[in-house]
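Sample pair:
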Amino acid sequence: MKEFWNKCKAFYERLQKEKELRFKTSAACIVVVFLGTSILADANPLNLLIPGTTYPFPAYDHRETIPVYAIRRESHDLFKVDEKVLLDGTPQQNVHRLASVVATPAAGLTREFDHLVYAIPFPSFNLSIEKVWIEKGNLVLSLDGRSISSELERRFEGEKLESMKRPAALLDGYFKCLTLTLLETDVGADKGIQSVRYSVSHEESLEAYKADSKFSFDAIYKK
């Protein structure tokens, strides 16, 4: 131990006398500190030479805040919430994206921001949209009636329904919410959506729900 301290003392005395040794020792210490910092920061040593590169920059949120209509779970009345949705596709793709958002609403705050509200999740009715046409602000959605009926059957599978009121209410609620959401959202078309109408193929598949349904697929819904 005494020998070790003698060596340290001798080295210190050399540092006081030899400038070249002081320079080499200082350079070695800087390299050790530099490499140690890169290991602790889990970063490329070269990145430490550029200020700020060791810290991740927050990603910019490209989603837009849009009004989405939904059905309140408790009272079954219509309400509107603001949701962030990424609308970076073509107008047709954005319509499909909105249809998916309406089908799976998230719990959110009402426009007055006074309390939380919970929305009824719909069957995947958005999968029934076969084609989307947009021309001069007029939006037409082509629907497959068989797909709509299949989604309703899947939702109520195993249940004994006394009537078709509950399935019809889901059908009405979804397309009413979708229509209102589309009329209030800029989907990126040359002209804002002024009207929405539906064209249903295999309409006979929905015959069982017509008596209890209030939403009309034959009507033209205007802004």
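The chain has a mean pLDDT of 86.
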